[in-house]
Structures are given as structure tokens and as C-alpha cells.
């Protein structure tokens, strides 16, 4: 078996991948630093007192994965911020915009919980605009759980964006269907790496060449 290593940056998109030409997937802006994806496996062990603290191989359960992506965004374009802030909205008046956070308790509608794609820059030519990228990561339904801190500070050193990152956490959520109502295979509902085509999903991405 050959060895495979992943090097290089990635692009992050969020939206509805079932719309023609990938028009439903929005580029969330550029990042500066390391994107991480943690599958967060949950293993439960069984023990009996007579055998001490060593777990028994006959009583091990997998409670399922709860994947989380951590993304150091630097782009603060207002529509991209809105996409990452559940319950937020943009109000426009007199040619001016304001991003509002919302207030009070509100149930988030399933239509607002969309698909996350993290695709390596060097694989955006794989298949149809990168849809067949072997190293891409997908969360069929995902939502921001930590937006991250907005930073204002004097640019110093040789990298003016290095200390301006907004460390955002995006969590995968369970749902049986994709944004178009198609069934997502049970094994892929928590997330998967590789091509949606491989798990029977007809998804599309937009032209990503403008972002590299």
C-alpha cells in the first residue's frame, strides 16, 4: 500500500451542494494558518472490579463520531460573516449595511444548517470543480459552534495577518438527508473524506479558480 501525505492549504465552502453548477456553495473567505479536522471518536469501555482498571475487549462500544473543524479565518466580508453566525442577518438602508447578531432564544431551522466542504487547493481540478478531490472533507450538515474573536491590533512584523485570525469551530450534525432532500447514507452522515460521488451523492461545487 502506498503512503499518502497531505500538504498545503485548503478552501472552505458552506451551503447547498445540490444546486446546479455548485451555485449554492459559498466560499467562506481566506484563512491564515492551520485548518484542523477532528473526527472526535467516542469509545466507551467496560470494566469489572475483579480485573482492575484494564478495559475488557468484550465490552467496547463505539458511540459514534462528533467531528469538528477548526478554521482560522481572516476574511471579514459581511456576507461571509453572516454565513458563519447562526441567527444573524444583514440590514440595509440608505446604501449602508449592518450585520445584526439577533437576540433571544430561537430554534434554528433545518434549512439554515448546511453542508461544509474543506477542499485542498491542489485538488480543485479533480472531477467537476474539485468534487472528486480525494482529500476533501465533507460535513453533510454543519453549524458554527464557536465564531472566534474579532481582533484589532497594530500590524507588526513581516506578516500583517498572522495575528488577525478568527478561530472558528464548525461542528458536524446528524441528519438523514442533504440540502436537496436526497438520502445521505447512514455511514456518511457524520462526515466523510473523499468524493460525494463515492457515497452516492450528486453534489456540485462552483468554479474555485478565482480563490487561488
Proportion in helices: under 10%
Can you count the helices?
1
Mean pLDDT: 93
List the domain count as a whole number. Answer: 1
Q: Which residue ranges are poorly predicted, with pLDDT under 50 across at least 5 consecutive positions?
A: none
Largest sheet: 8 strands, antiparallel
What would you report as the Rg, rounded to the nearest angstrom?
A: 20 Å
End-to-end CA span: 32 Å
What coarse outline follows from CA principal-axis ratios?
globular
Following the backbone from N to C, one meets helices and strands in this order, namely EEEEEEHEEEEEE
Overall number of strands: 12
Strand content: 25-35%
**Secondary-structure content class:** mainly beta
Entry keywords:
212 residues; mainly beta; eight-stranded antiparallel sheet; two-stranded antiparallel sheet; 1 helix
Summarize the structure.
The chain is mainly beta. Helix content is 3%, strand content 31%.
Walkthrough of the structure:
- The protein has about 210 residues and is mostly beta strands.
- The protein has one domain (about 10-45, about 65-210).
- The protein has one helix and twelve strands.
- It has one helix spanning about 80-85, and strands spanning about 10-15, 25, 35-40, 45, 55-60, 70-75, 90-95, 95-100, 115-120, 135-145, 165-170, 190-195.
- The protein is globular and about 75 Å long.
- The two termini are about 30 Å apart.
- The mean pLDDT is about 95.
Amino acid at each position: 500500500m502506498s503512503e499518502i501525505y497531505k500538504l498545503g492549504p485548503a478552501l472552505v465552502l458552506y451551503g447547498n451542494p445540490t444546486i446546479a453548477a455548485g451555485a449554492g456553495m459559498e466560499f467562506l473567505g481566506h484563512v491564515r494558518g492551520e485548518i484542523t479536522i477532528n473526527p472526535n471518536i467516542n469509545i466507551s469501555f467496560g470494566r469489572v472490579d475483579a480485573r482492575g482498571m484494564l478495559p475488557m475487549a468484550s465490552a467496547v462500544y463505539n458511540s459514534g463520531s462528533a467531528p469538528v473543524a477548526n478554521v482560522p479565518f481572516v476574511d471579514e466580508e459581511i456576507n461571509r460573516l453572516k454565513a458563519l453566525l447562526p441567527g444573524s442577518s444583514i440590514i440595509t438602508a440608505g446604501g449602508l449595511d449592518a450585520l445584526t447578531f439577533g437576540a433571544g432564544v430561537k430554534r434554528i431551522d433545518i434549512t439554515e444548517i448546511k453542508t461544509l466542504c474543506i477542499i485542498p487547493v491542489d485538488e480543485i481540478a479533480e472531477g467537476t470543480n474539485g468534487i472528486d478531490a480525494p482529500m476533501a472533507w465533507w460535513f453533510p450538515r454543519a453549524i458554527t459552534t464557536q465564531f472566534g474573536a474579532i481582533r484589532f491590533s497594530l500590524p507588526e512584523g513581516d506578516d500583517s495577518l498572522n495575528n488577525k485570525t478568527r478561530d472558528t469551530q464548525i461542528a458536524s450534525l446528524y441528519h438523514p438527508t442533504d440540502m436537496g432532500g436526497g438520502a445521505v447514507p447512514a455511514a456518511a452522515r457524520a462526515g466523510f473524506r473523499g468524493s460525494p460521488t463515492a457515497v452516492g451523492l450528486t453534489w456540485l461545487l462552483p468554479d474555485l479558480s478565482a480563490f487561488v
